[in-house]
Amino acid sequence: MRKAIKFQIINAFNSTGFLRVCLIGVVFSIFCFIINCISSYNADIISVQASYMQFLANSDWQTLIFGMVMPLLACAAYSDSYLADYNNNYFPICAVRMGAKKYYFSKLIAVFFCGAFVIFLPQIINYLLCMIAFPFESTNQYTLGLIQADTYGVILDLILFKRLYIFSPHLYFLLYIFISSLIAGAIAVIAYQLSYFVKNKIFVLSIMFIFINLFSVFCDVRNIKLDVLDCIFGLDISTPSYPYFIIIIASYFLMAFAPIPFALKKVKNTI
Fold first, then answer.
1. How far is CA 145 from CA 51, 141, 152, in A?
2. pTM value?
3. Nearest of 229, 247, 246 to residue 238 by alpha carbon
4. Three-class SS state of 62
5. CA 244 to CA 242: how far, in whole Å?
6. Residue 239 and residue 194: Cα distance in Å, rounded?
7. What is the tens place of the pLDDT at every residue in 115-156?
8. How many angstroms from the chain centroid is the CA of residue 109?
């Protein structure tokens, strides 16, 4: 099994889709960093925000864009790999040599890893660049007096893991990078599972992007706390409570792994 997983991951890392998605994510990450550098150029050091406040997941427009395209990037990394094998007549050969179970599960693990990695990579690069260029800590949030300090306190009351944020904002944002990467991996696996039932590349790559963004709009209109995009970025005051947070994440992992018996049966029947 270890050899099969290694083979799939190497195959993924050499695929055009994975490399293209990584490049897009890294370019966006560096672009956001450059924009923040330009906005802080020649500014008084007292007015420059701390590095964690310059993070792309802590900016309105950067967060909006990254959150919107996150499902598309996660799925485009490797979720269509079964379809690529199937269309190239490579699937029967590989599945017979590996065995149906090894083929299916090794590819599932590789899809999860790739989906998580392409979301982790741009965030950690942006975070490290901000750590290098901007102050580790800053008193900027207090420079507007009691009004700003009160706003800062209100935000803390509305976010999850606020004790961790008070202890270390850096650990807090690293936790959210990890959470968003895990959710992205689950989203990539959902699309991968669907590829066994709908053999259409465009559908597989776009279905989660369409579903998550449409459902996000629905949740905003209905004021429902079930939007997964509210769970992947720190300091988001629209983040649901802990029970809803757990329900949302559990739901996506359930959607990712519940179809395993049915998809595995499809693999066995296709050989």
1. 21, 9, 11
2. 0.89
3. 229
4. helix
5. 6
6. 28
7. 999 999 999 999 999 898 888 776 655 444 443 444 454 466
8. 16
